Target: Protein ABIL5
Amino acid sequence: MDKKMQNNSKPSSGQDAEAESKDVPNMEEKMQNISKPSSGQDAEAKSKDIGNFHNSLQELRDLRSQLHYAADYCESTFLNTKEKKVVMENTKEYICRAVVTVVDHLGCVSANINGIVSEANAFSEAEIRIDCLKQVVTTLLH
Model:
């Protein structure tokens, strides 16, 4: 397989699993900190989550262009070679790895969206609790 094609996909590794396991405590910390009053750090965290989401989307866009390039490359190579079977096998192998990479990136985008939605829901729940407390205080004062 051509080295240009090999560089276009990122095989998953044990490092990905380690990174995911390191993210778990961060999610727990975020969930514990949701009930605390908002601060500059919360705004920074939200900004970081949105930035991560945009980065994940950009990586998906980059994968799309890489896949288009690979498809064009495979097509031209297939048309200009006598070893069509070898080109077909290399193309199949590349496509399998590329699909795994795309699915992995979709998981990242999904996780980022879930994080943003969870924070928004927690904020709404906090507003509801505050409104309930206001009603209780108002009722007790009258």
